From TrEMBL:
InterPro entries: SNase_OB-fold_sf, Staphylococal_nuclease_OB-fold, Thermonucl_AS, tRNAsynth_Ia_anticodon-bd. Residues 150-317 form the TNase-like domain. Signal peptide: none annotated. One of its GO terms (molecular function) is aminoacyl-tRNA ligase activity. Pfam families: SNase. PROSITE patterns: TNASE_2 (PS01284), TNASE_3 (PS50830). GO terms for biological process: tRNA aminoacylation for protein translation. This is Staphylococcal-like nuclease CAN2.
């Protein structure tokens, strides 16, 4: 378990009444106690996989769904840097982590712990730029990423809901027709026909994704992380780079700022995950080079330099091979 959560539990989560138990159930009258109560319940969930008994009185989803929330919240708390400490920070973490869940469940969970619900909409990704930087062609917010589809340490395959205003007006008619016909085929239990139509949708660059028992028609995008070049999968530290990227994005909704398209049809983009700049993490962990030939940002060069100085990741080697030179050698048959 994350040290921050363990510390908060140890400092704050002590029974205060005779009725207190291992799983704190009733709503909390002060937001301060709500912070420690959630930490306590996450600690308890990690050990027992059980959610608080009284929670079902405040939310609409099943106990099974609640367990999934606590698993996501536990992971988000572990990965938060710095860890949340105030009621506002904890409320924000809950809203960000459960952004794709029913509003009634999110509000019920906040109410259960006595945490504040913002009066204005909260951006899902707080640490990215508040306004689009110069050169950004468009911005998109993805559905949760399937980590198994991440190809390497500097590429991500993502899907965007076609209900998004930018997407809704450009969905090909063939895709819409196939989606409607597939739905009808499934209603008639003609699953062979439904599978044929799903394959057609995929071939056209779209996908039908099931999220919380709701089928969503989504468009596929291939993303190339802007400004970095990770070792290829068969190079030293290639597998580690891919694993780190999977760990960062798996199951997460991403904020993607697209600057253009490369010769392979991929969107060249900056990617933010729960407020974390993905390229920064890859560089600081020594799992990617700053791709200076295509990106002159000083901060990227600084993060690579710091990793080099600490001999982290691929910089543990005295003379690691550059991935662009590795690719060139193979193209030329060396």
């Amino acid at each position: 378990m994350g040290n921050a959560l363990r510390f908060l539990y140890g400092k704050c989560c002590k029974p205060t009444t005779a009725g207190d138990s291992d799983s704190l159930g009733p709503p909390y009258t002060t937001t301060a106690s709500g912070v420690s109560a959630l930490a306590h319940d996450l600690f308890n969930f990690e050990i027992t996989s059980q959610v608080p008994e009284g929670l079902s009185q405040h939310v609409v989803s099943s106990r099974k769904a609640q367990a999934k929330w606590y698993g996501k919240l536990l992971q988000a708390w572990r990965e938060a840097k710095p860890p949340p400490k105030t009621p506002e920070e904890v409320a924000r973490l809950i809203i960000q982590t459960l952004s794709r869940h029913q509003k009634a469940d999110v509000e019920g969970l906040l109410e259960f712990y006595g945490l504040p619900y913002p009066s204005t909409p909260v951006e899902i990704f707080s640490e990215g730029p508040t306004k689009l930087p110069e050169g950004v062609e468009f911005e998109m917010h993805t559905l949760p990423v399937d980590g198994s589809t991440v190809p390497d340490g500097d590429g991500i395959n993502v899907y965007v809901n076609t209900a998004d205003p930018r997407e809704s007006s450009s969905v090909p008619r063939d895709v819409l027709l196939a989606a409607v016909r597939r739905s009808k085929a499934r209603a008639k239990k003609n699953y062979a026909r439904a599978d044929e139509l799903r394959q057609k949708i995929i071939e056209l660059g779209y996908q039908v994704i099931n999220i919380q028992n709701e089928e969503i028609l989504a468009r596929k995008y291939r993303i190339r992380l802007r400004g970095i070049d990770a070792p290829e999968n068969s190079m030293p530290y290639g597998k580690e780079a891919k694993q780190e990227l999977v760990k960062l994005v798996n199951g997460k909704c991403l904020r993607v700022l697209v600057y253009g398209e490369d010769r392979y049809g991929r969107c060249v983009a900056d990617v933010y995950c729960n407020g974390i700049f993905v390229q920064e993490i890859m560089l600081k962990k020594g799992l990617a080079w700053h791709y200076a030939a295509y990106d002159q940002r000083i901060e990227l060069a600084t993060w690579e330099k710091e990793a080099r100085a600490k001999r982290i990741g691929l910089w543990a080697s005295s003379n690691p091979e550059k991935p662009w030179e590795w690719r060139k050698d193979r193209r030329e048959g060396r």
